[in-house]
Amino acid sequence: MTRLTRDDLEAARDRLVPDVVADGLRVLFCGINPGLMTAATGHHFARPGNRFWPVLHLSGFTPRLLAPSEQGELPAYGLGITNVVARATARADELTAEEYREGGRLLTEKVNRLRPHWLAVVGVTAYRAAFDDRKAAIGPQDRTIGATRVWVLPNPSGLNAHWTATTMAEEYGRLRAEA
């Protein structure tokens, strides 16, 4: 992969990154919003140190470790990726409460249209903000969107240090067993 400069990353600010989706997926993973590396490359969870791809493999969702550039293979495994908020930022704390609420509304419309079996939101804080559910915890939720069940997973960002790749893979694996 070409090394991106600070200017390359800054030029990706506010850029939109296309979802990786299909109708009737087993699991639609939902990040908070694209980071600048994701927006610059067009590949979800692209920042080195983000543990999404290794955890997806360790949990058994994929038969091998996929690189972010191989995200197009996910629908063949019944998996997809979207975000609560579409616009790219350097940090999630740059998003407003209104963006989260609107993102939750748009995500609900998307889920109703695509009808995945599970919506897996990666990040309890994002889930709480998008769906105004202050008491949500990691794991399956009571909420459904149409027939789609909802599971909140730990955020795979390297900043989420109290979850290791192993403990995240265990939680992701609990979802895989249900999906």
From TrEMBL:
Entry EC number(s): 3.2.2.28
Pfam families: UDG
InterPro entries found in the cross-reference section: MUG/TDG (IPR015637), Uracil-DNA_glycosylase-like (IPR005122), Uracil-DNA_glycosylase-like_sf (IPR036895)
Domain of life, source organism: Bacteria
Gene3D superfamilies named among the record's database cross-references: Uracil-DNA glycosylase-like domain
Keywords annotated in UniProt: DNA damage, DNA repair, Glycosidase, Hydrolase
Residue ranges constituting the Uracil-DNA glycosylase-like domain according to the UniProt record: 18-179
Keyword Hydrolase listed: yes
GO molecular function term, any single one: hydrolase activity, acting on glycosyl bonds
PANTHER family for this protein: G/T AND G/U MISMATCH-SPECIFIC DNA GLYCOSYLASE, G_T MISMATCH-SPECIFIC THYMINE DNA GLYCOSYLASE
Name assigned to this protein: G/U mismatch-specific DNA glycosylase
Species, as recorded: Streptomyces hintoniae
